Q: What sequence folds into this?
């Protein structure tokens, strides 16, 4: 039995196991019912409320995010995680290598932009910045180096996913301009990463309805809205040099029901930047 508000080891293990079962089903493209899972889990816990279970699921998402894994999109990462929960998630990952094999396959899976798409609910508000989740690599991670992965980098290397996301945003930009009565501008929208090469600092040259340039860099993920992404030194510098024209469009949940949010202006003003890679030369 749990004492007070603390969760027992058995409760934590049951909650982690249930969460990971749902996540594995999601990665496999199988439908599942969160409400049914929650009811079954509550029967194993000591007088926990649905709200408490929801919070614990969000804590698990935060642990997975800190370990560079993907998480269930409906459970937004929530900080202030119990150390015992971190340890249980790590233990589960060590005992279930098939989960990482699932993620390896998912981030590498080819993607194709939909031929027809309803953009009515495509653009949404960006997630709020959460300083509490901006943790550097923690000591507990270093104790288990075999858990190290970088699925954000692996997904970023999936060129078909990146291209499909860009193509979707090109279609959105053209439709947006047509809806504003600017067919002549829609016809001028250019997918510059394809026509001029990848490395300009942006992917799409679009326009505002008044003819003002929109220089759009697209970042695409198949996963949750809060999934981190990589930006090159060139992209960051370009966004600062052209802050009045630059827009970063983040496409997420691409394989399910794609949506996107926009971050206009310099990347450094809109995102927490963590320098994770350096080019080194002996001196």
A:
């Amino acid at each position: 039995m749990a004492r007070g508000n603390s969760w027992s080891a058995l409760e934590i293990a049951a909650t982690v196991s249930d969460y990971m079962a749902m996540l594995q089903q999601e990665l496999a493209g199988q439908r599942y019912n969160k409400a049914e899972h929650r009811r079954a889990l509550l029967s194993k816990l000591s007088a926990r409320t649905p709200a408490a279970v929801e919070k614990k699921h969000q804590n698990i998402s935060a642990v997975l995010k800190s370990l560079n894994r993907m998480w269930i999109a409906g459970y937004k990462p929530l900080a202030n995680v119990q150390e015992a929960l971190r340890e249980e998630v790590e233990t589960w990952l060590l005992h279930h290598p098939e989960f990482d094999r699932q993620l390896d396959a998912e981030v590498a899976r080819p993607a194709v932009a939909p031929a027809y798409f309803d953009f009515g609910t495509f653009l949404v508000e960006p997630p709020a910045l959460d300083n509490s989740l901006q943790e550097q690599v923690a000591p507990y991670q270093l104790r288990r180096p075999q858990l190290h992965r970088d699925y954000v980098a692996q997904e970023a290397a999936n060129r078909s996913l990146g291209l499909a996301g860009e193509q979707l945003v090109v279609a959105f930009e053209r439709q947006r301009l047509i809806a504003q009565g600017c067919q002549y501008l829609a016809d001028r929208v250019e997918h510059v990463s394809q026509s001029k090469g990848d490395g300009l600092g942006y992917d799409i040259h679009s326009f505002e309805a008044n003819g003002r340039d929109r220089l759009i860099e697209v970042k695409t993920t198949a996963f949750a809205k809060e999934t981190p992404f990589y930006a090159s030194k060139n992209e960051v510098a370009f966004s600062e040099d052209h802050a009045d024209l630059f827009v970063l469009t983040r496409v997420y949940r691409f394989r399910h029901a794609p949506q996107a949010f926009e971050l206009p202006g310099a990347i450094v003003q809109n995102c927490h930047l963590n320098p994770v890679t350096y080019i080194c030369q002996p001196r």
In short: The chain has two domains: 9-108, 154-269. The radius of gyration is 21 Å. Residues 129 and 261 are 13 Å apart (CA to CA). Residues 136-141 have pLDDT under 50 and may be disordered.
